[in-house]
Amino acid sequence: HRPVFRLVSSAGPAAADLGRDEQPPGSEVPGTEDKTPKKRFSEVQRERREQAQRTALIHCPNKISEKKFLKYLSQHGPIKNHFFYESFGLYALVEFCQKDSIDSLKHGSHTPSLSTEAAIPFRSRFFSLRQRNPSSQSSEQSCVKISSQVPPTNRKLFDVLYYAESVDDQLNNLLKASELTEENTKLRYLTCSLIEDIAAAYFPSCTVRPFGSSVNTFGKLGCDLDMFLDLDEFRENTTNKNVGNFLMEFQVKSVPSERIATQKILSVIGECLDHFGPGCVGLQKILNARCPLVRFSHQPSGFQCDLTTNNRIALKSSELLYIYGALDSRVRALVFSIRHWARTHSLTSSIPGAWITNFSLTMMVIFFLQRRSPPILPTLDSLKSLAGAEDKCIIEGNNCTFLSDLNKIKPSGNTETLELLLKEFFEYFGNFAFNKNSINIRQGKEQNKPDSSPLYIQNPFETSLNVSKNVSQSQMQKFVDLARESAWILDQEDRASSDDRPWGLAALLLPSIISKSHAKRSKNKPASERVRSLLESIKQGNTADPASTDGE
Ligand code: CTP
Ligand code: MG
Q1: What per-residue confidence (pLDDT) applies to 136?
Q2: Rounded to whole angstroms, how far apart are CA atoms 388 and 438?
Q3: What is d(CA 379, CA 442) in angstroms, rounded to the nearest whole number?
Q4: Lowest-pLDDT range, 56-60, 468-472, 516-520?
Q5: Whose CA is nearest to atom 7 of ligand 1?
Q6: What is the CA radius of gyration of the chain?
Q7: Where is the segment annotated Disordered (predicted)?
């Protein structure tokens, strides 16, 4: 007998204020078919970006009256939404109804004069609110509601799984407990918007766009914030006034390659963030990576940020995942559970190395769902064939065309339960011919591997690239062994009625015999792989021991 357990939505007051159509995709109650039209990815990005531009981040005194706080800020204009959160101090995210209010707030603020240090007078939308007369308010209790921005504890996740009514419930509840909240999403777009203001010092009409798990609906609380500096906007916005025989161009400096241009731009923006960016700390320039980037912590939001430039293809792949995540409510539940399973068994890590990444795991789940009969997800080629003229998209010679209006895609007739899909996933990949086949979500079928990488997942848009090129043979073997063991455990579960032991998905998260034997083997392994992983992480600027990092 399992007690009935209902998970209370972690969405706070901000989500409650939003209309139904402003809720993030996938936020519907599991099991209820959502008939409201789903927004296009580009529409969501536009709205979130505009919302972030009307928003300010305020460091508050620890004790504050919410009523007085709102009254004070309303002098700059009506407030649409706000929430408080803690991150080494109390912060408030305040969304005004109009953008003008931000200008008014900026006009009413001043640069502090510091006693022992000198301030860099950069006027951003990140403020500090001070009390003029702290003693008069000290008796006032802080009565603000705090919105949590951190992932659920293992204890909470254990309860979520243990007290669920079925394996399907377990997967859906795990999703609800760990997905990005409305508030966290707002904080992510705001952080990009704040970084954009700094980059705009050099490139006035640039855009800093989030991509990856912050926007593709597969992000969990605590995931990093991937963003890219988009300078292509210039090209799009130029209205063609060049009638007649003339064409006007900017005089520019030139460098030998696109890569060098990227490195130069990221280098100065990195310096700027480091020296002038309020809240930006621990900046590292990783300019020699395949995709050069600047990594830093945005202290007030608590996000680890990776800033790249001209990464439009990655934004397209975020859009593709957004569509796959929205097409069927089982997709995200399955992906979140498998990622959680992989993290628990140290198949994935928060630092780069020879292990499988969350992105690769997501591609594997999508591929698996394309292979069901009938398929749960369409292939990328079929999404391309459904595309209209407005969807046509070629980036750097790569065809990234696919249907953007996901309401035009027919829902799958497949009615398999999550419980079955979870088990079949482990069966499928426990027996997959990784030694000769590659995973290809464009065609939805396995192909011969073009090289001998232990795991080959074709990049959906840059089709000559392997998404999981980094994965070592021993990590691959560990994945296969754990998948087989998990399929076996789920199979046993079918037969034995469970008593008080963790059951269903929770049973798969217990320390595994296989993990232990792999850990032992890897400790005994003398050279190549461990050294390679270590070198890889040093190259990326990390020196931590992979085994000891559990940032998530
Ligand atoms: N990406 C890619 N090929 C890779 C790695 C990453 O195209 N080999 C792109 C994907 O679009 C991915 C994005 O870069 O979503 C960000 O990469 P990463 O942060 O590694 O993955 P996320 O999807 O953001 O997942 P996580 O929550 O682990 O950060
Ligand atoms: Mg990421």
Answers
A1: 62
A2: 30
A3: 5
A4: 516-520
A5: 314
A6: 25
A7: 15-53, 517-552
- Tell the burial category of 377 from Cβ atoms under 10 Å away from its Cβ (0-12, 13-18, 19+): buried
Mutate to test the pocket of ligand 1, among 226, 336, 363 (most ligand atoms within 8 A of CB): 226
ipTM for the complex shown: 0.99
Determine whether the shortest distance from the Cβ of 317 to ligand 1 is under 6 A. yes
| pLDDT, averaged across the chain | 87
Write the single-letter amino acid at 109: S
In contact, 183 and 93? CB cutoff 8 Å: yes
- In our burial notation (b when 16+ CB lie closer than 10 A, e otherwise), range 42-70 reads eebbeebbebbbbbbbbbbbebbeeeebe
Element containing residue 363 per DSSP (H, E): helix 358-370
Instruction: Give pLDDT tens digits for 397-432.
Output: 999 999 999 999 999 999 999 999 999 999 999 999
Alpha helices in 413-512 (DSSP H): 418-430, 473-495
The SS3 of residue 326 is helix
Q: Whose CA is nearest to atom 16 of ligand 1?
A: 212
Which amino acid appears at position 440 of this protein? N
| Residue found by looking up tokens 């050294």 in the block | 531
Instruction: Supply the pTM of this predicted model.
Output: 0.88
